[in-house]
């Protein structure tokens, strides 16, 4: 739809025009009405209509001078149709001078006006198509030249072309700027809403002559921002003006990241690289709408990849269900990230390792990992969309949820596994058996296995094994003539003295005395 403004000092004329024509059917929308040339001028500057239908004789500012001002002073491409109750040749000649499309006499002939509207609609449509094509071509040139500039591969001709395109003045300086767009609340219309929001922001940027759009992607817009050195607070005023308009858009959070100041295009690479550092630094700040390169603080400590990326402690705490230990360990690690301003990629590696090792435990316990995997892999992949505090919160949430799930799996699996272990011990008690060896054989944490063992049998693993061996030794002492050292070896004790000490502990007598008592009882 193209915008049309109706101008006449007689209100009934503009009202009649509104109802006389089916504007929507003709591809137009009436964007306003004005009572004279002065009023029209204000509304033209505000609404930027594609077509103005104006009376020629009006108080304060007549139609001809209104058109003259728009063409010569404002340099607008707006089309004009003049309405007049007089067939004045001189006025028509002046109108032609300013490229007025048509001169229609009152009373207005509906068919004549509709015919003119159709012709003008086609003309505007073709002009806009050409403008779009030219703008698209210029944008491609601009992107290409800027990419060369930030790689130091530009030619003098390309710099001059960009300089001319930006219309730089002597006292203006530049900053490279990245504008990030996010939805405050996400819903089912997220993707479509993103497009609408971005187009609204682009429209605001295009209306400001101090922003020059370089590149746009899904949720980012890269621009060059111009600032006047001689005018105090020009820059802050311009940014705040933009943010004020942007913040009026529903459900949209706008963040601006700015590189350092430069005074010529051949230094654009510096401002661009500083801008990227500002974006990365934002990861360590709370959500902020505006961050300057000059605000970046130096790290309090040097980042150590090897020291920070050890995940064993937190994974062990997850497996053992030690929730307070999980929180404590993550707090230490993320404090190191914050103090050293660690690269985002390093944070990604750490969290990814925690997730992978935790998933491995779930798989070993025959758990379902798909839901965890999809949800948190997406989070890691899109980590740039969060700040460090949010990443810590999401990581803690993953660790605690995983720990709860692992505990459920362990409890569900424990009874069956303990029964298997009991059977294995009874069949192999004479061999060198340890809790560590059993935990490796049955894919369980040794500490957790020890806890579960005591829970089911009421005694710890070593006492259970010793009792089993001593019971077998008692049978052999009472039923065979084997020597004590032979019995010790046959039930799993390589050291006879140790066997004797264990025997005395569990029976309150020595092996030899036990044999004598057993023989007497057997003879009697």
TrEMBL record:
It comes from the Bacteria. Residues 3-121 form the Response regulatory domain. One of its GO terms (biological process) is phosphorelay signal transduction system. It is found in: Cytoplasm. PROSITE patterns: HTH_ARAC_FAMILY_1, HTH_ARAC_FAMILY_2, RESPONSE_REGULATORY. InterPro entries: CheY-like_superfamily, Homeodomain-like_sf, HptR, HTH_AraC, HTH_AraC-typ_CS, Sig_transdc_resp-reg_receiver, Tscrpt_reg_AraC-type_HTH. Residues 419-517 form the HTH araC/xylS-type domain. GO terms for molecular function: DNA-binding transcription factor activity; sequence-specific DNA binding. GO terms for cellular component: cytoplasm. The modification 4-aspartylphosphate is found at residue 55. SMART domains: HTH_ARAC (SM00342), REC (SM00448). Keywords: Cytoplasm, DNA-binding, Phosphoprotein, Transcription, Transcription regulation, Two-component regulatory system. May play the central regulatory role in sporulation. It may be an element of the effector pathway responsible for the activation of sporulation genes in response to nutritional stress. Spo0A may act in concert with spo0H (a sigma factor) to control the expression of some genes that are critical to the sporulation process. This is Stage 0 sporulation protein A homolog. The lineage of its organism: Bacteria, Bacillati, Bacillota, Clostridia, Eubacteriales.
């Amino acid at each position: 739809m193209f915008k049309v403004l109706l101008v006449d000092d007689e209100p009934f004329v503009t009202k009649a025009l509104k109802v006389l024509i089916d504007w929507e059917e003709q591809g137009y929308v009436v964007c306003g009405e004005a009572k004279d040339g002065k009023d029209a001028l204000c509304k033209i500057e505000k609404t930027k209509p594609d077509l103005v239908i104006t009376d020629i004789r009006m108080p304060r500012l007549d139609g001809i001078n209104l058109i003259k001002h728009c063409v010569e002073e404002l340099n607008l491409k707006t089309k004009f149709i003049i309405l007049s109750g007089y067939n004045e040749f001189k006025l028509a000649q002046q109108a032609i001078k300013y490229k007025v499309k048509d001169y229609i006499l009152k009373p207005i002939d509906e068919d004549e006006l509709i015919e003119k509207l159709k012709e003008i609609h086609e003309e505007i449509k073709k002009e806009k198509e050409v403008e779009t094509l030219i703008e698209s071509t210029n944008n491609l040139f601009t992107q290409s030249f800027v990419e060369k500039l930030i790689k130091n591969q530009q030619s003098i001709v390309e710099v001059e072309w960009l300089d001319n395109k930006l219309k730089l003045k002597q006292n203006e300086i530049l900053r490279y700027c990245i504008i990030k767009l996010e939805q405050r609340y996400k819903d089912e219309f997220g993707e479509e809403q993103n497009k609408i929001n971005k187009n609204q922001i682009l429209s605001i940027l295009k209306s400001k002559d101090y922003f020059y759009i370089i590149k746009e992607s899904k949720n980012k817009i890269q621009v060059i921002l111009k600032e006047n050195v001689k005018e105090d607070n020009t820059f802050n005023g311009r940014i705040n003006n933009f943010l004020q308009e942007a913040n009026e858009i529903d459900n949209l959070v706008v963040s601006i990241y700015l590189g350092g100041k430069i005074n010529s295009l051949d230094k654009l690479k510096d401002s661009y690289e500083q801008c990227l550092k500002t974006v990365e630094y934002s990861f360590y700040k709370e959500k902020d709408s505006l961050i300057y390169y000059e605000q970046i603080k130096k790290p309090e400590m040097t980042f150590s990849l090897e020291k920070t990326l050890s995940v064993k402690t937190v994974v062990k705490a997850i497996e053992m269900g030690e929730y307070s230990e999980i929180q404590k360990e993550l707090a230490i690690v993320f404090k190191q990230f914050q103090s050293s301003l660690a690269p985002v990629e390093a944070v990604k590696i750490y969290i990814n390792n925690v997730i992978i090792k935790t998933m491995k435990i779930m798989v070993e316990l025959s758990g379902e990992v798909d839901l965890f995997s999809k949800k948190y892999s997406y989070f890691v992949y899109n980590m740039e969309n969060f700040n460090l505090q949010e990443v810590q919160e999401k990581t803690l949430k993953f660790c605690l949820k995983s720990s709860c799930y692992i505990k459920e799996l362990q409890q569900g699996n424990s009874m069956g596994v303990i029964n298997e272990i009991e059977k294995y011990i009874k069949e192999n008690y004479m061999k060198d058996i340890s809790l560590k060896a059993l935990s490796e054989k049955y894919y369980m944490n040794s500490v957790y296995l020890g806890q579960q063992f005591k829970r089911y049998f009421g005694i710890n693993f070593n006492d259970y094994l010793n009792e089993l061996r001593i019971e077998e030794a008692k049978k052999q002492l009472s039923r065979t003539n084997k020597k004590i050292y032979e019995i010790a070896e046959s039930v799993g004790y390589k050291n006879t003295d140790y066997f004797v000490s264990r025997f005395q502990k569990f029976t309150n007598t020595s092996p030899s005395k036990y044999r004598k008592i057993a023989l007497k009882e057997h003879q009697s």
